[in-house]
Amino acid sequence: MQERPLVARHNIPLTEDKAKIAEAARQSALEILRDALKKKDRVLMETPQDLISRDSEEPMLWMERYAVLMEQWVRDLISVLEKAKFMENPSTQQLYTYVYTESGDKAIYLCPLFWAAPRHLDKDSQPGTLIHKASHFLGTCDITYEPFSFYVTCRGVMVKNSSTDPDSPKFLPLVTAVLNANNIQHKFERTLRHRGDYKQGRYSCCGETARSSVCESAVPDAFLVCRNNGSE
């Protein structure tokens, strides 16, 4: 998902069929983000405040996360996606999408890999990719494409430093968690996606009926408890 492909801009308007696919992907991404807001007390994070040593054994539960995603960030992503326009570049065979953030027009250029991507939330899915691209208009960049995660507890207030190598992205986990666009995408596609099947109008993992949504069961109850006061 390189941001500045080394090819000429062969951008064309979408065909009617592809415009329908792109709009369906946008609506899916928006529904996912709005559902995250509805379930914010469980699936979103609070502002990190404490960085804990990697050798710390307390608290006992550390949840793997990919991005520091708070309520205002989600609202801003929704605002960007609502305004985004789509163009196609069929010549960039190796890409899903790309953007030019300096253009100011909120254009997302859709490439051949995008059309073959999963249409529901999954690895490298269409809605996840659009969320990734929308985040670039909010200041994220592509620091790494590796799925670097970090560990948090107490609703995200406490963060574990899991590396002693200063050259590793994990040494300062909040850098990639806040600034790396892929981490935003991983947050939804790896952490908050449904693990159960969608059958007879609901997900087997949590009972959610909305097809484009996040899973409350993906977040364990213990993540919501802060041990310093024992309350949720």
Element layout with pairings:
Elements: H1 16-38, H2 40-43, E1 50-52, E2 63-65, H3 71-83, E3 85-88, E4 97-99, E5 107-110, H4 112-116, H5 126-136, E6 150-153, E7 158-160, H6 173-179, H7 181-191, E8 198-199, E9 202-203
Parallel strand pairs: 1-7, 3-5
Antiparallel strand pairs: 2-6, 4-5, 6-7, 8-9
Helix pairs in contact: 1-3, 1-5, 3-5, 5-7
Largest sheet: spatial strand order: 1-7-6-2
CATH superfamily: Collagenase (Catalytic Domain)
Q: Distance between the terminal alpha carbons, to the nearest Å?
A: 39 Å
Shape: globular
In the predicted model, the low-confidence regions spanning at least 5 consecutive residues are: 1-8
How many individual domains? 1
In the CATH hierarchy, what is the architecture at level 2? Answer: 3-Layer(aba) Sandwich
Domain Lysine-specific metallo-endopeptidase: 49-189
InterPro entries: Lys_MEP, MetalloPept_cat_dom_sf
Protein name: Lysine-specific metallo-endopeptidase domain-containing protein
Pfam families: Aspzincin_M35 (PF14521)
What does this protein structure show overall?
By secondary structure, the protein is an alpha/beta fold. It has one domain (12-222): 3-Layer(aba) Sandwich (Collagenase (Catalytic Domain)), CATH 3.40.390.10. The protein is built from seven helices and nine strands. It has helices spanning 16-38, 40-43, 71-83, 112-116, 126-136, 173-179, 181-191; strands at 50-52, 63-65, 85-88, 97-99, 107-110, 150-153, 158-160, 198-199, 202-203. The strands form three sheets. It has a four-stranded mixed beta sheet, covered by helices on one side. A three-stranded mixed beta sheet has the order 3-5-4. Helix 1 (16-38) crosses helix 5 and helix 3 packs across helix 5. The chain is globular. Residues 49-189 form the Lysine-specific metallo-endopeptidase domain. This is Lysine-specific metallo-endopeptidase domain-containing protein. InterPro entries: Lys_MEP (IPR029463), MetalloPept_cat_dom_sf (IPR024079). GO terms for molecular function: metalloendopeptidase activity.
